[in-house]
């Protein structure tokens, strides 16, 4: 398995040899410090068990109401899907679509596809559709936001506590357990192990010769000479996972700028326009994100105010600023602290999804509080723009290629890459 002894770091692009990693240990990139491989004990069996448990919990969590809202003898109950349907009926289909995708479809599909990948592997089979499904599992991971949704539920419950009594439903417990099971399944999964079971077609098993040009797959991390890639029109595909091969993410800077500018344009109405309006005993009142935070502060709910301020105002702004800084620094070919800049990129990728909390709070309030003039909540236009900010900044972070940070420096030291490559190759048997 000569090709497996070399891996290109996904964050800085450096080609290196991953040493034997002890069980439970991990290997880090020598240049940028990114984690390149983790050796998870009994990965496939544990992930399969957790996936099956996750699917059972997913069905329970979606089949029963998760909260009931009681006010003056009247009660409304909410399941995940009725929350989405209420938003859709209220004319807020963009939010309904995002909530449907992130809280139901992405986690559900992720579990179902994972099952379809792991069951054949457990029987020592690799059907031809397996690589495509596993690529989808990896794509869906950042969009499954059940943990963020749970924080949204907690915020909504505290907000409503003075107004009415909130009764947790059976599925709330399944929901909470599912978050832990999903996280455990992701932690147990060793993608390198799955890819090592997928056969490589054609010439792909030949490792690049010393000094020979090579290209690495961003999905399964196979390193091959370009001649060994599968030709598909004018594109090259990976002979293992069939993903399109690129040296760097295509048009990374242009795409990231475009998405970022769109996000900045949406950020303004997201903060100026009301995100929801509350009707209570006939009188109606609208809230922007900021007045919502101030209301919580005035009523002594400062931990909640802090959560919403951080997730909805601070994090989106921080993401925008960091991404703009990274883009400008790459375009100026800066060699300032590449390791720290790569770390900043990791931060942006990790925190982005948490901004969704307020969107979920609005969804849950709309779904729970629907007693007409007595008490009801509607989502307003600001929430649509806010939702757009979160999605656009996540897409912007995904289209930015952190390897560009390092490319600018390598161009200053011609031959450096070849030297590193040669040195690691010389060390191989
Ligand atoms: Zn690296
Ligand atoms: Zn591949």
Structure description:
It is built from 15 helices and 14 strands. With 429 residues, the chain is of the alpha+beta class. It has one domain. The strands form 6 sheets. Strands 6-5-7 form a 3-stranded antiparallel β-sheet. A hairpin with a 6-residue loop joins strand 1 and strand 2 (15-17). Helix 8 packs antiparallel against helix 10 (302-331), helix 9 (289-298) packs antiparallel against helix 10 and helix 10 packs across helix 11. The longest helix has 30 residues, at 93-122. The protein starts with 5 loop residues before the first strand and ends with a helix. Residues 413-429 have low confidence and may be disordered. One zinc ion (ZN) is lined by residues 9, 11-12, 14, 29, 31-32, 34.
What is the helix content? Answer: 55-70%
> Which class of secondary structure composition applies to the elements?
alpha+beta
Profile the largest sheet: 3 strands, antiparallel
Attached small molecules: zinc ion
How many individual domains?
Answer: 1
Q: Please give the order of strands in the largest beta sheet.
A: 6-5-7
The overall average pLDDT, rounded, is: 89
What is the C-alpha radius of gyration, as a whole number of Å? 24 Å
Distance from N terminus to C terminus (CA atoms, Å) equals: 12 Å
Label the overall shape. Answer: globular
Q: Which residue ranges are poorly predicted, with pLDDT under 50 across at least 5 consecutive positions?
A: 413-429
| Assembly level | single chain
Write down how many β-strands occur, each being a DSSP E stretch of 2 or more residues. Answer: 14
* Helical run tally: 15
- Share in β-strands: 5-15%
Give the helices and strands as they follow along the chain: EEEEHEEHHHHEHHEEEEHEEHHHHEHHH
Protein name: Integral membrane protein, PqiA family
Membrane topology: Multi-pass membrane protein
Family: Belongs to the PqiA family.
Organism: Thiocapsa marina 5811
């Amino acid at each position: 398995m000569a090709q497996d002894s070399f891996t290109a770091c996904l964050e800085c692009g450096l080609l290196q040899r991953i040493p034997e990693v002890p069980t439970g240990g991990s290997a880090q990139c020598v240049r940028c410090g990114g984690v390149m491989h983790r050796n998870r004990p009994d990965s496939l069996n544990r992930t399969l068990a957790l996936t099956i448990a996750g699917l059972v919990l997913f069905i329970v969590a979606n089949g029963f109401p998760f909260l009931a809202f009681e006010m003056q003898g009247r009660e409304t109950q909410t399941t995940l899907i009725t929350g989405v349907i209420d938003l859709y009926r209220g004319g807020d289909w963009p939010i309904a679509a995002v909530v449907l995708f992130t809280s139901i479809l992405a986690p559900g599909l992720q579990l179902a596809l994972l099952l379809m990948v792991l069951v054949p592997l457990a029987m020592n089979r690799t059907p031809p559709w397996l690589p495509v499904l596993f690529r989808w599992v990896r794509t869906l991971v950042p969009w499954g936001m059940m943990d963020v949704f749970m924080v949204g539920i907690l915020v909504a419950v505290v907000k409503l506590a003075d107004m009415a009594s909130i009764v947790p439903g059976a599925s709330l417990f399944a929901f909470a357990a599912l978050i832990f099971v999903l996280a455990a399944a992701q932690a147990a999964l060793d993608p390198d192990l799955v890819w090592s079971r997928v056969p490589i077609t054609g010439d792909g098993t030949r490792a690049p010769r010393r000094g020979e040009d090579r290209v690495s797959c961003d999905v399964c991390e196979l390193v091959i000479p370009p001649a060994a890639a599968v030709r598909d029109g004018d594109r090259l595909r990976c002979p293992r996972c069939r993903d399109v091969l690129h040296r760097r993410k295509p048009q990374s800077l242009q795409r990231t700028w475009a998405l970022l500018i769109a996000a900045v344009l949406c950020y303004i109405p997201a903060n100026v326009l009301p995100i929801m309006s509350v009707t209570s005993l006939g009188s109606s009142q609208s809230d922007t994100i900021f007045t919502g935070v101030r209301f919580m502060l005035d009523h002594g709910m400062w931990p909640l105010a802090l959560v919403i301020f951080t997730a909805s105002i601070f994090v989106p702004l921080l993401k925008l600023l960091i991404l703009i800084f990274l883009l400008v620094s790459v375009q100026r070919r800066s060699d300032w602290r590449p390791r720290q800049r790569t770390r900043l990129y990791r931060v942006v990728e990790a925190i982005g999804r948490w901004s969704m909390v307020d969107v979920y709070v609005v969804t849950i309030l709309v779904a729970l509080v629907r007693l007409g003039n007595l008490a009801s909540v509607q989502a307003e236009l600001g929430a649509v723009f806010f939702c757009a900010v979160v999605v656009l900044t996540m897409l912007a972070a995904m289209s930015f290629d952190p390897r560009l940070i390092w490319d600018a420096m390598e161009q200053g030291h011609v031959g450096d890459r070849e030297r590193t490559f040669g040195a690691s190759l010389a060390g191989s048997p």
